[in-house]
């Protein structure tokens, strides 16, 4: 599949009509003012990666962030990680995402949480980012590369837009030892838009792009335990809470 067609397919997979309205309705159902939510109110829905805020905070500890730093969130979704970085560390965060409704929602939620002065969200491809060389002093990308066929181009573009020696944190679903992958999955309807790599392959690609990989971690057991806990809680409650990832994923997110 050509790049343009692939990116349209990926954006279409994630697009959710009236997403902001659905989130607002979920907040109301939870007894929260949708016009003035706290970051913790949004955390169950706005960090679209395994273990959400737990993983975000774990990742941020590794980046050594401080106030005033310019940080890139590549594949920002609806902006939860960017808002967390801005709130926790006082950084100026730029998020970029392929899905227009995600970017629109990210901007609106930044305004509602009072973080629009620190958070900027751009619609675009992480393979061709509209940023200057060395513009960012740190970068993070969470559950993004699974949809990218040209992983070399992605990591090269990340290397271009961060300053020399700047920290990068990558958290992705990786290919395991078993062959075959069941679809649909939260990130892809079919294998046509899914491009998993092993941890070893990912490390090699990052190093080829010029990064020095100083730490690597396999979080498989952590992820399995997290999802077991979520599924058990949803079953006990008779369904998901009013605010949760089901607002983003639909049926595929609970399989």
Task: Please describe the topology of this protein.
Layout lengths: L2 H12 L4 H11 L9 H8 L5 H12 L6 E5 L5 H10 L2 E6 L2 H13 L6 E5 L14 E5 L8 H11 L6 E4 L27 H10 L11 H18 L8 H4 L6
Parallel strand pairs: 1-2, 1-4, 2-3, 4-5
Helix pairs in contact: 3-5, 4-5
Short description:
By secondary structure, this protein is α/β, with parallel strands linked by helices. It has one domain (3-254): Rossmann fold, CATH 3.40.50.150.
Overview of the molecule:
- The chain contains ten helices and five strands.
- The protein has helices spanning 3-14, 19-29, 39-46, 52-63, 80-89, 100-112, 151-161, 199-208, 220-237, 246-249, and strands at 70-74, 92-97, 119-123, 138-142, 168-171.
- The protein has 255 residues and is of the alpha/beta class.
- It has one domain (3-254): Rossmann fold, CATH 3.40.50.150.
Q: Briefly, what CATH class? A: Alpha Beta
Q: Which outline best applies?
A: globular
Distance between the termini: 27 Å
- As a percent range, the share of strand residues is 5-15%
Number of domains: 1
CATH architecture call = 3-Layer(aba) Sandwich
How many DSSP-defined strands?
Answer: 5
Mean pLDDT: 91
Output the number of helix runs: 10
């Amino acid at each position: 599949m050509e790049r343009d067609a692939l990116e349209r397919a990926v954006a279409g997979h994630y697009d959710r009509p009236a997403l902001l309205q659905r989130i607002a309705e979920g907040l109301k159902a939870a007894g929260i003012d949708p016009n003035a939510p706290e970051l913790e109110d949004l955390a169950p829905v706005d960090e679209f990666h395994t273990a959400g805020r737990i993983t975000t905070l774990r990742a941020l500890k590794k980046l050594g962030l401080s106030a005033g730093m310019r940080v890139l969130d590549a594949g920002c979704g609806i902006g939860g990680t960017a808002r967390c970085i801005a709130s926790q560390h006082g950084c100026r965060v730029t998020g970029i995402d392929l899905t227009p409704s995600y970017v629109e929602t990210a901007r609106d939620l930044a305004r509602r949480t009072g973080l629009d002065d620190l958070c900027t969200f751009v619609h675009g491809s992480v393979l061709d980012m509209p940023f200057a060389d060395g513009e960012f002093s740190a970068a993070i990308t969470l559950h993004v590369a699974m949809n990218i066929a040209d992983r070399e181009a992605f990591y090269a573009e990340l290397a271009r837009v961060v300053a020399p020696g700047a920290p990068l944190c990558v958290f992705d679903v990786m290919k395991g030892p078993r062959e075959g992958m069941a679809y649909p999955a939260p990130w892809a309807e079919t294998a046509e838009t899914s491009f998993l790599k092993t941890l070893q392959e990912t490390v090699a690609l990052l190093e080829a792009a010029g990064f020095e990989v100083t730490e690597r971690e396999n979080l498989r057991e952590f992820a399995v335990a997290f999802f077991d806990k979520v599924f058990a809680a949803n079953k006990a409650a008779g369904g998901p809470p009013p605010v949760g990832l089901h607002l983003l994923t639909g049926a595929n997110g609970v399989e």
